[in-house]
């Protein structure tokens, strides 16, 4: 730990920024946001833009959770193919989801530009390579559906040969390229947004966990170690770190927290750099246990995926699965020195969608990004602000209808271990 933060490449390369203080005393606002990550700060961005008085309280520090430890990919796709979504929900719903996915990345772009956040933001595109022929057919079906049913011709397919040249590896069968994808330094983005909001008059408090939440007349009263906040509305933006705050509150049981682990190699030499991911784009493949990777500004290769799903261990053995997958993807890097290892907790839902909705009168939530939170959390900030303002939203399958607790939630870790092993076997067989 460094200054209370888990070590990571992002923390090590972070730019100096603003400091944030703990809540001291009692405050009153129109809207209280619990959680200072992507979702909470995006909600504060939207509320302040609407002229709604709000404050953010964070239990740890800005960028402490997954928002400051993610791979930093903003992807205009969901985990499920658009063609699959169209079959399950109909073309109209699928078109709405596609529009929201693009809006999500647009929102990040607008935030970086409007707030002048120095976070290495690049919007040059994103690649989704297919690990199997079946996955390749699904990606091709997406391109066909987008062109035929959504009127969008931006995304395109890469042949196996073109993908191999772009990726510098022969392990994939082809790839889906969307030029609207982006990447950024997530720790700098998170803290930069928090600092910009604070400079614009939005109070941002750290080391201020909400210990209790209860009704106090016509307002909600949030109790922290250093003081209280009274608010007409409360937004719960705690994602994988959600815990019950209200009587009968089962929000934490609707998601399963899972660790996403990342390694970063030593800087590649000139020859290695020429043959490792020559296109320079961020990559997220189609495996059930996805691999995602990108070249960092330092010349290091970032490679992420599933390590120890509980996130409780930080010894190098946890990351050996990632190192093996890295060597399979890039054999010329087998045995390369790994300079940094870290992990963050993401929240997984049963249907692989994030969800936004109402928990109680005046209490709203959004969570469950499953590793796609950089862009989707920015979108959810807009939806949450609309709910606080009393507006009706149409999130489609990402709403609260049918967003029920996970069965046998108490045995979630055992179940996740079993499913992880099952997915590993399926991915290996398909490859």
Attribute tags:
8-stranded mixed beta sheet, 32% helix, 5-stranded antiparallel beta sheet, single chain, alpha+beta, 18 strands, 11 helices, 22% strand, 431 residues
Number of helices: 11
Percent range for β-strand residues: 15-25%
Task: Please report the distance between the alpha carbons of the first and last residues.
Answer: 38 Å
Order of helices and strands: HEHEEHHEHEHEEHEEEEEHEEEHEEEHH
Structural category? alpha+beta
What's the story with the biggest beta sheet? Answer: 8 strands, mixed
Write the layout of secondary structure elements.
Layout: H1 9-12, E1 25-34, H2 38-49, E2 54-57, E3 73-74, H3 82-89, H4 91-115, E4 126-129, H5 133-149, E5 156-158, H6 160-167, E6 175-178, E7 182-183, H7 186-199, E8 204-205, E9 212-216, E10 219-224, E11 227-236, E12 256-265, H8 270-275, E13 283-284, E14 292-295, E15 301-305, H9 320-329, E16 338-348, E17 355-360, E18 363-367, H10 373-388, H11 412-430
Parallel strand pairs: 1-2, 1-11, 2-8, 11-18
Antiparallel strand pairs: 3-7, 4-6, 5-6, 9-10, 10-11, 12-15, 12-16, 13-14, 14-15, 17-18
Helix pairs in contact: 2-7, 2-10, 3-4, 4-10
Outline of the structure:
The protein is α+β, with helices and mostly antiparallel strands and 431 residues long.
Describe the structure.
- The chain is an alpha+beta fold and 431 residues long.
- Helix content is 32%, strand content 22%.
- It is built from eleven helices and 18 strands.
- The strands form four sheets. Strands 1, 2, 8, 9, 10, 11, 17 and 18 form an eight-stranded mixed β-sheet that branches. It has a five-stranded antiparallel β-sheet with strand order 13-14-15-12-16, covered by helices on one side.
- Strand 13 and strand 14 form a beta hairpin.
- The protein is globular, with a radius of gyration of 21 Å.
- It starts with 8 loop residues before the first helix and ends with a helix.
- The mean pLDDT is 93.
């Amino acid at each position: 730990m460094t200054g209370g933060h888990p070590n990571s490449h992002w923390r090590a390369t972070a730019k100096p920024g603003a400091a944030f203080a703990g809540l001291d005393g009692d405050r009153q606002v129109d809207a209280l946001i619990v959680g200072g990550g992507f979702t909470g700060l995006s909600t504060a961005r939207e509320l302040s833009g609407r002229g709604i008085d709000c404050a953010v309280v964070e239990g740890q520090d800005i960028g402490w959770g997954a928002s400051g430890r993610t791979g930093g990919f903003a992807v205009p796709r969901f985990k499920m193919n658009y063609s699959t979504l169209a079959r399950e929900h109909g073309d109209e719903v699928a078109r709405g989801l596609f529009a929201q996915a693009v809006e999500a990345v647009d929102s990040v772009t607008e935030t970086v530009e409007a707030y002048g956040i120095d976070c290495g933001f690049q919007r040059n595109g994103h690649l989704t390579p297919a690990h199997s022929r079946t996955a390749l057919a699904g990606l091709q079906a997406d391109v066909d559906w987008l062109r035929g049913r959504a009127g969008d011709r931006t995304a395109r397919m890469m042949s196996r040969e073109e993908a191999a040249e772009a990726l510098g590896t022969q392990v994939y069968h082809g790839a889906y390229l969307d030029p609207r994808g982006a990447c950024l330094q997530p720790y700098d983005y998170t803290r930069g947004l928090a600092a910009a909001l604070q400079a614009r008059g939005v109070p941002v408090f750290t080391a201020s966990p909400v210990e209790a939440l209860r009704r106090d007349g016509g307002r909600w009263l949030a109790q922290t170690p250093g003081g209280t906040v009274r608010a007409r509305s409360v937004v719960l933006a705690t994602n994988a770190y959600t815990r019950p705050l209200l009587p009968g509150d089962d929000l934490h049981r609707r998601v399963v927290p899972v660790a996403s682990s990342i390694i970063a190699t030593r800087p590649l030499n000139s020859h290695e750099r020429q043959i490792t991911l020559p296109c320079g784009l961020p990559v997220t493949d189609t495996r059930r246990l996805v691999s995602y990777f990108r070249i960092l500004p330092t010349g290091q290769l970032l490679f992420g995926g599933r390590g120890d799903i509980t996130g409780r261990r930080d010894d190098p053995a946890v990351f050996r699965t990632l190192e093996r997958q890295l060597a399979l993807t890039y054999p010329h890097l087998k045995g390369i020195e790994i300079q940094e290892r870290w992990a963050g907790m993401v929240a997984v839902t049963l249907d692989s969608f994030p969800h936004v909705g109402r928990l109680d009168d005046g209490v709203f939530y959004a969570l469950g990004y499953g590793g796609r939170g950089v862009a989707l959390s920015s979108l959810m900030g807009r939806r949450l602000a609309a709910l606080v303002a009393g507006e009706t939203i149409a999130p489609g399958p990402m709403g609260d209808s049918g967003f029920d607790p996970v069965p046998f939630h108490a045995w979630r870790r055992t179940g996740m271990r079993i499913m992880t092993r099952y997915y590993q076997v399926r991915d290996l067989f398909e490859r």
